[in-house]
């Protein structure tokens, strides 16, 4: 947290930039108010990078367009019905929104948009006091009607209005509280946290798409653990991601299995570290983080108490993959994300068989083939899934995975492992066997792929011999 004076100096420098000064002059000349609002002002106080320039004004959307057209390289309607106009000015993208005084009926998923006339009223309808800060332009007057600066100093999230009213107006703000607590490393003020618990059922009014987007933003923060805890402790996770609180299994009387919920949070944290450390993926990576958080959701429905006090979770990988697919679809994630996350969960246990005995080259090829384009993510998930406090065991598993990755690299160089396929394609199979397109071609291709996985490259001539031998056995008459 920077001092107020330092933050104002930083805001003054921002106001002097070509984009902001050009906008401020244009609105002043047109006789309208303009203020930099929300995140940019907050982040100036926190010493964080200011990436998005958001403005608010008393001008209507049509008036905003008339003002920005002469000075913008481009402009567009982001949400004219909600009062927002986007523009590119001096090379920077900005959003300008008319003062709002939204009305909510307490039942629908969307507010009735009502434009306001006062900056102070606009600020008090925002989600949290730390986001209800504005800098009037061009005179550089800080506007803070709800004590947002004090809350920034205290590193606390609090709603400008009573939390019951704020969350009742827009229940998505409860998820935003979890996201901002993680993103900013802030605590949630007790009355606000209590309201989140009391009103958790109100989140059912929010569309799956908006819930998905807010959960994604939370997971994409640098340290999402605290925000996830807030969702679980408040009861919100029970409404939007019930598989997560279900991981808090009661331990058996002998304490012979881990707290799966805590384990999953640790796996998520470690996956983020590997994601950043390895540097292969674009970071942050939502698929890695979803897979890490959900990888064990198949454990609660598969838990069994065995004779002698042991606890088993047979096939929790397969069950978990199905549960993840169902939940992510309900949250309206795109098909590619759903497929990738469920595939990673299905495969996340595969590596642990590597330490039971030496894998053949065939087993390594199959591991790569089954992972497909998710191989790097599977590397991260498998490594992150090691949370044992037994240092010797942890080192053993780490060394084993190092060895597996080295073998994959060697085979990849020798065999173009990333594109494992038979030496004969469908057209060649049909020509050799004299058959037309149909199921038999797929069966033949699958047989040759198994040969390729078992033995590595064998060349077209040998592949042809194997194909003809398979065909002869398949078409040979059987004894009546």
From TrEMBL:
<dbReference type="GO" id="GO:0046872">
    <property type="term" value="F:metal ion binding"/>
</dbReference>
<feature type="domain" description="HD">
    <location>
        <begin position="260"/>
        <end position="381"/>
    </location>
</feature>
<keyword id="KW-0808">Transferase</keyword>
<keyword id="KW-0547">Nucleotide-binding</keyword>
<dbReference type="Pfam" id="PF12627">
    <property type="entry name" value="PolyA_pol_RNAbd"/>
</dbReference>
<protein>
    <submittedName>
        <fullName>CCA tRNA nucleotidyltransferase</fullName>
    </submittedName>
</protein>
<dbReference type="InterPro" id="IPR006674">
    <property type="entry name" value="HD_domain"/>
</dbReference>
<dbReference type="InterPro" id="IPR002646">
    <property type="entry name" value="PolA_pol_head_dom"/>
</dbReference>
<dbReference type="InterPro" id="IPR014065">
    <property type="entry name" value="tRNA_adenylyltransferase"/>
</dbReference>
<keyword id="KW-0548">Nucleotidyltransferase</keyword>
<dbReference type="GO" id="GO:0008033">
    <property type="term" value="P:tRNA processing"/>
</dbReference>
<keyword id="KW-0067">ATP-binding</keyword>
<dbReference type="InterPro" id="IPR043519">
    <property type="entry name" value="NT_sf"/>
</dbReference>
<keyword id="KW-0819">tRNA processing</keyword>
<dbReference type="Pfam" id="PF01966">
    <property type="entry name" value="HD"/>
</dbReference>
<keyword id="KW-0460">Magnesium</keyword>
<keyword id="KW-0692">RNA repair</keyword>
<keyword id="KW-0479">Metal-binding</keyword>
<dbReference type="InterPro" id="IPR003607">
    <property type="entry name" value="HD/PDEase_dom"/>
</dbReference>
<dbReference type="GO" id="GO:0042245">
    <property type="term" value="P:RNA repair"/>
</dbReference>
<keyword id="KW-0694">RNA-binding</keyword>
<dbReference type="InterPro" id="IPR006675">
    <property type="entry name" value="HDIG_dom"/>
</dbReference>
<dbReference type="GO" id="GO:0003723">
    <property type="term" value="F:RNA binding"/>
</dbReference>
<dbReference type="InterPro" id="IPR050124">
    <property type="entry name" value="tRNA_CCA-adding_enzyme"/>
</dbReference>
<dbReference type="Pfam" id="PF01743">
    <property type="entry name" value="PolyA_pol"/>
</dbReference>
<dbReference type="GO" id="GO:0016779">
    <property type="term" value="F:nucleotidyltransferase activity"/>
</dbReference>
<dbReference type="InterPro" id="IPR032828">
    <property type="entry name" value="PolyA_RNA-bd"/>
</dbReference>
<dbReference type="GO" id="GO:0005524">
    <property type="term" value="F:ATP binding"/>
</dbReference>
